[in-house]
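S.,

Sequence below, as promised.
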Amino acid sequence: VLSHNLCTVLNVPHDPVALEEHFRDDDEGPVSNQGYMPYLNKFILEKVQGNFDKVEFNRMCWTLCAKKNLSKSPLLISDEDAFKVWVIFNFLSEDKYPLIIVPEEIEYLLKKITEAMGAGWQQEQFDHYKIALNTSREGLSAWELIELIGSGQFSKGMDRQTVSMAINEVFNELILDVLKQGYMLKKGHKRKNWMERWFVLKPNIISYYVSEDLKDKKGDIILDGNCCVEALPDKDGKKCLFLIKCLDKTFEISASDKKKKQEWIQAIQSTVSLLRAGSAPPHKEARQKRRELRQKLLAEQEELERQMKELQAANENKQKELETVRKQLEAAAARAAEEEKKRLQTQVELQDRFSLELEREKMVRQKMEEQVAQKSSELEQYLQRVRELEEMYKQLQEALEDEKQARQDEETVRKLQARLLEEETAKRAELEKWHLQQQQTIQMTEAEKQELENQRMMKEQALQVAMQQLKQLELERKEALEQYEEVKKKLETAANNTKSWKDKVAHHEGLIRLIEPGSKNPHLITNWGPAAFTEAELEERQRSWKGKKTNSE
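The prediction came back faster than expected:
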């Protein structure tokens, strides 16, 4: 049964045939420890690959030995806590049988438990206990250690729950390689929501669970030498953020406060550094260093005892050598004091130099700040000037719009004047035609004179009507000229406004080029363009036509 259970917890295939073959010739009754050890080493331990649950293995071993060896006196710790102390004992004990834990390791363990409880370490109390222990034995067995912790000698004033939590914390660190654990928020990769998880940091992995009972595991973050951790600024209402970058994924995590955030970042960075260096977990490396130190101290102690014997054999010679050494030490001390004096002097000089450089840097910074303030003032003036130019540009645009509207009105009046001149020309041509016809009728015979007279009267009436129409056209033309003069005045006003804005813009470095109005000299405009005669010539021709008309009558 023992062999089968060992194979089960160690993930080793059980071979009952080998068991029967090994103990086939043993008919002397129960197998002793010494008789079972060869079979254990050959058929079980040599096949172990390391892929087994060490806690379950320890629990099975605890089940085998606890009932027989555990003290029957009442303890302040539960059986589960006693089991964890027993596992810790196996981790810290010396590698020789019978297993014992030396006073240095007892002090280390009690300090860890006391710190986990949040109490102060009583060094004086432990020193008295250590003195009493060294006088009787080299260390404690596992059961004596359980009885020491369970007696509450070094946890006075603490309740059972506090002691249990402290033992569990030390057990997680030393046995389960839990470097740090606690609740934090984790951002999901798919739904991008934040969920509270219980994180457990181990030497090469960070596991996160739904709660601290570790029953519902949600995932792992595999750590290696390529991983890194970075602090993130607060965002999306989440504070105390940091990022864990791995080869295939990144994880955003939010701690409860800044202290926890910094502790987690430092713990993960330390773990990654150990992975890069290929070092063991800190507590294992510390245990190995303590053992090496004890071995070194033991070797030094043995060497010291040997040297003491040699010194006793050659006491007189050593006295002389000691005197020489004493003198050398005094000389060395004098040299050291002189070197210390020089070092202090050098340090004072360096401090003075650094103070001067600091003052110089302060002056340079002050000058730079003054320059920055001056540049800021100049920039503000420049921006004010640009705003003024933009305002002037808008007003100039409005003036140009007015000038454009005036030009359009002028063009309308010119077209109206051209139409009136065209109608006036047509009427004048018709009048000349009638005048010629009248002259022709005068030269006719007297017989036709009466008839022609009647016709002449009719034509005279038509001529009168035409003259009235011509006068009406003259009035309309004058009205058109008056409108043209008004439009021309508006155009000149707009041009003057444009010129005044042009002067203002030129005063502000001439950034905009103005559009100037056309010529101010009045010209007659027809449908075919500018007229070939001036207004004075037109009046001369009108007077000539009137004279011809009077002569014909």
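Confidence is low (pLDDT under 50) at residues 510-516.

Coffee later?
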